[in-house]
Protein backbone atom coordinates (compact mmCIF):
# COMPACT_ATOMS: atom_id res chain seq x y z
CA UNK A 1 0.00 0.00 0.00
CA UNK A 2 1.40 3.42 -0.99
CA UNK A 3 1.02 6.74 0.84
CA UNK A 4 -1.47 7.86 -1.78
CA UNK A 5 -3.83 5.13 -0.62
CA UNK A 6 -3.81 6.16 3.02
CA UNK A 7 -6.75 8.06 4.51
CA UNK A 8 -6.34 11.74 5.24
CA UNK A 9 -6.50 11.25 9.01
CA UNK A 10 -3.56 8.85 8.94
CA UNK A 11 -1.53 11.19 6.74
CA UNK A 12 -2.18 13.94 9.26
CA UNK A 13 -0.68 11.68 11.95
CA UNK A 14 2.38 10.86 9.83
CA UNK A 15 3.11 14.46 8.79
CA UNK A 16 4.47 15.82 12.11
CA UNK A 17 6.35 12.61 12.85
CA UNK A 18 8.05 12.50 9.45
CA UNK A 19 9.39 16.07 9.80
CA UNK A 20 10.14 16.01 6.10
CA UNK A 21 9.48 19.04 3.87
CA UNK A 22 9.51 16.64 0.91
CA UNK A 23 6.55 14.59 2.10
CA UNK A 24 3.87 16.92 0.64
CA UNK A 25 5.67 16.74 -2.71
CA UNK A 26 5.37 12.97 -2.99
CA UNK A 27 2.39 13.14 -5.34
CA UNK A 28 -0.47 15.43 -6.32
CA UNK A 29 -2.89 13.76 -3.92
CA UNK A 30 -0.66 14.18 -0.87
CA UNK A 31 0.19 17.73 -1.90
CA UNK A 32 -3.51 18.57 -2.05
CA UNK A 33 -4.08 16.94 1.34
CA UNK A 34 -1.44 19.00 3.12
CA UNK A 35 -2.22 22.20 1.22
CA UNK A 36 -5.73 22.11 2.64
CA UNK A 37 -4.61 20.98 6.09
CA UNK A 38 -5.69 23.11 9.07
CA UNK A 39 -3.17 25.61 10.55
CA UNK A 40 -3.04 23.55 13.75
CA UNK A 41 -1.48 20.64 11.85
CA UNK A 42 1.20 22.84 10.28
CA UNK A 43 1.81 24.34 13.74
CA UNK A 44 2.32 20.86 15.20
CA UNK A 45 4.72 19.99 12.36
CA UNK A 46 6.80 23.16 12.88
CA UNK A 47 6.94 22.65 16.64
CA UNK A 48 8.18 19.09 16.13
CA UNK A 49 10.81 20.26 13.65
CA UNK A 50 12.06 22.96 16.03
CA UNK A 51 12.23 20.57 18.99
CA UNK A 52 14.30 18.12 16.97
CA UNK A 53 16.72 20.81 15.80
CA UNK A 54 16.95 22.38 19.25
CA UNK A 55 17.76 19.02 20.80
CA UNK A 56 20.84 18.57 18.63
CA UNK A 57 21.86 22.16 17.82
CA UNK A 58 22.88 24.91 20.20
CA UNK A 59 22.56 27.35 17.29
CA UNK A 60 18.88 26.48 16.84
CA UNK A 61 18.29 27.01 20.56
CA UNK A 62 20.11 30.35 20.43
CA UNK A 63 18.08 31.70 17.51
CA UNK A 64 14.83 30.47 19.03
CA UNK A 65 11.50 29.14 17.85
CA UNK A 66 10.23 32.12 15.85
CA UNK A 67 13.34 32.52 13.72
CA UNK A 68 13.30 28.79 12.96
CA UNK A 69 9.63 28.46 11.98
CA UNK A 70 9.63 31.66 9.90
CA UNK A 71 12.05 29.96 7.52
CA UNK A 72 9.23 27.68 6.38
CA UNK A 73 6.90 29.18 3.73
CA UNK A 74 3.96 27.36 5.39
CA UNK A 75 4.43 29.62 8.43
CA UNK A 76 1.59 32.07 7.86
CA UNK A 77 -0.15 34.32 10.36
CA UNK A 78 -2.74 31.63 11.04
CA UNK A 79 -0.06 29.00 11.61
CA UNK A 80 1.87 31.26 13.99
CA UNK A 81 -1.27 31.94 16.00
CA UNK A 82 -1.88 28.18 16.16
CA UNK A 83 1.69 27.71 17.45
CA UNK A 84 1.13 30.26 20.22
CA UNK A 85 -2.13 28.55 21.21
CA UNK A 86 -0.66 25.06 21.21
CA UNK A 87 -0.04 23.47 24.63
CA UNK A 88 3.20 22.08 23.14
CA UNK A 89 4.56 25.51 22.20
CA UNK A 90 8.21 25.78 23.34
CA UNK A 91 9.37 28.63 25.53
CA UNK A 92 9.60 31.98 23.74
CA UNK A 93 11.74 34.72 25.34
CA UNK A 94 9.99 37.96 26.25
CA UNK A 95 10.24 40.71 23.59
CA UNK A 96 11.61 42.95 26.35
CA UNK A 97 14.62 40.65 26.76
CA UNK A 98 17.12 42.31 24.41
CA UNK A 99 19.93 40.03 25.61
CA UNK A 100 18.50 37.19 23.52
CA UNK A 101 19.17 36.97 19.80
CA UNK A 102 16.64 38.95 17.74
CA UNK A 103 14.16 37.36 15.39
CA UNK A 104 15.64 37.03 11.89
CA UNK A 105 13.48 37.99 8.90
CA UNK A 106 13.69 35.17 6.33
CA UNK A 107 14.71 36.05 2.80
CA UNK A 108 11.87 34.10 1.19
CA UNK A 109 9.40 36.80 2.32
CA UNK A 110 11.05 39.28 -0.07
CA UNK A 111 12.73 37.12 -2.71
CA UNK A 112 9.88 37.27 -5.23
CA UNK A 113 9.32 41.03 -5.07
CA UNK A 114 9.73 42.53 -8.53
CA UNK A 115 9.07 45.94 -10.12
CA UNK A 116 5.56 46.89 -11.20
CA UNK A 117 6.56 49.58 -13.64
CA UNK A 118 4.47 48.42 -16.58
CA UNK A 119 1.48 50.55 -17.67
CA UNK A 120 -0.97 47.68 -17.04
CA UNK A 121 0.50 46.58 -13.71
CA UNK A 122 -1.26 47.42 -10.46
CA UNK A 123 0.91 49.57 -8.17
CA UNK A 124 2.03 48.27 -4.80
CA UNK A 125 -0.29 48.95 -1.85
CA UNK A 126 -0.17 48.35 1.90
CA UNK A 127 -2.39 45.30 1.39
CA UNK A 128 0.20 43.44 -0.70
CA UNK A 129 2.24 40.74 0.99
CA UNK A 130 4.54 40.58 2.82
CA UNK A 131 3.52 43.92 4.39
CA UNK A 132 0.37 42.70 6.24
CA UNK A 133 2.32 39.72 7.61
CA UNK A 134 5.17 41.99 8.74
CA UNK A 135 2.74 44.28 10.53
CA UNK A 136 1.45 41.23 12.39
CA UNK A 137 4.97 40.12 13.32
CA UNK A 138 6.11 43.52 14.56
CA UNK A 139 2.98 44.15 16.61
CA UNK A 140 2.55 40.72 18.21
CA UNK A 141 3.30 40.81 21.96
CA UNK A 142 4.94 37.35 22.00
CA UNK A 143 7.36 37.77 19.12
CA UNK A 144 10.87 38.79 20.22
CA UNK A 145 12.58 41.89 18.87
CA UNK A 146 12.94 41.65 15.08
CA UNK A 147 16.19 42.42 13.28
CA UNK A 148 14.96 44.48 10.34
CA UNK A 149 18.44 44.50 8.81
CA UNK A 150 18.74 40.71 8.67
CA UNK A 151 21.02 39.41 5.91
CA UNK A 152 22.69 42.81 5.36
CA UNK A 153 19.45 44.71 4.79
CA UNK A 154 18.06 42.23 2.27
CA UNK A 155 14.43 43.23 2.95
CA UNK A 156 14.96 46.93 2.24
CA UNK A 157 17.08 46.29 -0.85
CA UNK A 158 14.42 44.03 -2.40
CA UNK A 159 11.67 46.49 -1.53
CA UNK A 160 13.59 49.30 -3.26
CA UNK A 161 14.25 47.08 -6.27
CA UNK A 162 10.52 46.40 -6.55
CA UNK A 163 9.57 50.03 -5.95
CA UNK A 164 7.33 48.87 -3.07
CA UNK A 165 6.99 52.26 -1.38
CA UNK A 166 4.61 51.28 1.48
CA UNK A 167 6.97 48.45 2.43
CA UNK A 168 10.00 50.74 2.24
CA UNK A 169 8.32 53.21 4.58
CA UNK A 170 7.42 50.44 7.02
CA UNK A 171 10.95 49.04 7.08
CA UNK A 172 12.52 52.47 7.53
CA UNK A 173 10.11 53.16 10.40
CA UNK A 174 11.46 50.00 12.05
CA UNK A 175 15.12 50.97 11.82
CA UNK A 176 16.02 49.61 8.40
CA UNK A 177 19.46 50.97 7.49
CA UNK A 178 20.01 52.06 3.86
CA UNK A 179 23.77 51.99 4.45
CA UNK A 180 23.82 48.20 4.79
CA UNK A 181 26.11 46.37 2.38
CA UNK A 182 27.80 49.53 1.16
CA UNK A 183 24.61 51.57 0.58
CA UNK A 184 23.26 48.86 -1.72
CA UNK A 185 19.63 49.99 -1.36
CA UNK A 186 20.66 53.51 -2.38
CA UNK A 187 22.57 52.18 -5.38
CA UNK A 188 19.50 50.21 -6.47
CA UNK A 189 17.33 53.34 -6.22
CA UNK A 190 19.84 55.26 -8.33
CA UNK A 191 19.96 52.53 -10.98
CA UNK A 192 16.18 52.60 -11.09
CA UNK A 193 16.54 56.35 -11.77
CA UNK A 194 13.96 56.96 -9.07
CA UNK A 195 14.47 60.24 -7.26
CA UNK A 196 11.40 59.70 -5.01
CA UNK A 197 12.82 56.41 -3.74
CA UNK A 198 16.27 57.93 -3.24
CA UNK A 199 14.86 60.83 -1.23
CA UNK A 200 12.83 58.38 0.85
CA UNK A 201 16.01 56.50 1.75
CA UNK A 202 18.07 59.60 2.53
CA UNK A 203 15.66 62.04 4.15
CA UNK A 204 13.69 61.41 7.31
CA UNK A 205 9.93 61.92 7.73
CA UNK A 206 9.35 62.86 4.12
CA UNK A 207 5.59 63.22 3.43
CA UNK A 208 4.12 61.15 0.61
CA UNK A 209 2.97 64.21 -1.33
CA UNK A 210 6.45 65.72 -1.10
CA UNK A 211 8.10 62.52 -2.29
CA UNK A 212 5.88 62.26 -5.33
CA UNK A 213 5.42 65.96 -6.10
CA UNK A 214 7.22 67.40 -9.08
CA UNK A 215 10.84 67.06 -8.07
CA UNK A 216 12.01 68.54 -11.37
CA UNK A 217 9.88 71.64 -10.83
CA UNK A 218 11.27 72.09 -7.31
CA UNK A 219 14.85 71.74 -8.53
CA UNK A 220 14.29 74.17 -11.40
CA UNK A 221 12.80 76.72 -9.01
CA UNK A 222 15.81 76.40 -6.75
CA UNK A 223 18.16 76.82 -9.70
CA UNK A 224 16.25 79.92 -10.84
CA UNK A 225 16.64 81.41 -7.37
CA UNK A 226 20.39 80.88 -7.49
CA UNK A 227 20.69 82.37 -10.99
CA UNK A 228 18.82 85.52 -9.91
CA UNK A 229 21.73 86.34 -7.68
CA UNK A 230 20.08 85.16 -4.49
CA UNK A 231 22.33 83.60 -1.97
CA UNK A 232 21.73 79.99 -1.15
CA UNK A 233 20.33 81.12 2.16
CA UNK A 234 16.74 80.48 1.11
CA UNK A 235 17.39 76.97 -0.03
CA UNK A 236 19.73 76.46 2.88
CA UNK A 237 16.92 77.42 5.18
CA UNK A 238 14.67 74.87 3.54
CA UNK A 239 17.42 72.31 3.66
CA UNK A 240 18.11 73.31 7.24
CA UNK A 241 14.55 72.49 8.19
CA UNK A 242 15.04 68.99 6.85
CA UNK A 243 18.47 68.59 8.44
CA UNK A 244 17.08 69.31 11.89
CA UNK A 245 15.96 65.70 11.91
CA UNK A 246 19.17 64.58 10.25
CA UNK A 247 19.44 62.53 7.10
CA UNK A 248 19.54 58.77 7.51
CA UNK A 249 22.78 58.52 5.57
CA UNK A 250 25.46 60.84 4.26
CA UNK A 251 25.61 61.42 0.53
CA UNK A 252 28.90 60.29 -0.99
CA UNK A 253 30.69 61.02 -4.27
CA UNK A 254 30.14 57.37 -5.21
CA UNK A 255 26.40 58.04 -5.30
CA UNK A 256 26.86 60.99 -7.63
CA UNK A 257 29.24 58.94 -9.72
CA UNK A 258 26.66 56.15 -10.01
CA UNK A 259 23.96 58.64 -11.01
CA UNK A 260 26.15 60.08 -13.77
CA UNK A 261 27.12 56.63 -15.03
CA UNK A 262 23.51 55.49 -15.42
CA UNK A 263 22.43 58.84 -16.90
CA UNK A 264 20.15 59.72 -13.98
CA UNK A 265 20.37 63.48 -14.47
CA UNK A 266 17.60 64.39 -12.06
CA UNK A 267 19.26 62.41 -9.28
CA UNK A 268 22.67 63.91 -10.02
CA UNK A 269 21.15 67.39 -9.86
CA UNK A 270 19.49 66.56 -6.54
CA UNK A 271 22.71 65.22 -5.02
CA UNK A 272 24.67 68.30 -6.11
CA UNK A 273 22.15 71.07 -5.45
CA UNK A 274 20.31 69.80 -2.38
CA UNK A 275 22.88 67.57 -0.73
CA UNK A 276 26.01 69.50 -1.61
CA UNK A 277 27.85 66.65 -3.27
CA UNK A 278 30.64 68.53 -5.08
CA UNK A 279 31.48 68.03 -8.74
CA UNK A 280 35.20 68.28 -8.01
CA UNK A 281 35.09 65.05 -6.05
CA UNK A 282 33.21 63.41 -8.90
CA UNK A 283 35.90 64.50 -11.38
CA UNK A 284 38.58 62.95 -9.17
CA UNK A 285 36.69 59.63 -9.12
CA UNK A 286 36.19 59.63 -12.87
CA UNK A 287 39.81 60.54 -13.56
CA UNK A 288 40.91 57.79 -11.17
CA UNK A 289 39.42 55.24 -13.54
Describe the structure.
- With 289 residues, the chain is an all-alpha fold.
- It is built from 17 helices and two strands.
- It has a two-stranded parallel sheet with strand order 1-2.
- It is elongated.
- About 11% of the residues have low confidence.
SS-based class: mainly alpha
Overall geometry: elongated
For this structure, the quaternary state is single chain
Helix content: 55-70%
Distance between the termini: 69 Å
What brief labels describe this structure?
two-stranded parallel sheet, 17 helices, about 290 residues
Summarize the structure.
The protein has helices spanning 8-18, 28-35, 39-56, 58-63, 65-70, 77-85, 131-139, 150-162, 165-173, 180-191, 195-202, 208-211, 215-227, 233-243, 253-261, 265-273, 279-288, and strands at 103-104, 146-147.
Task: Give the topology.
Elements (H helix, E strand, L loop, with lengths): L7 H11 L9 H8 L3 H18 L1 H6 L1 H6 L6 H9 L17 E2 L26 H9 L6 E2 L2 H13 L2 H9 L6 H12 L3 H8 L5 H4 L3 H13 L5 H11 L9 H9 L3 H9 L5 H10 L1
Helix pairs in contact: 1-3, 3-6, 8-9, 8-10, 10-11, 13-16, 15-16, 15-17
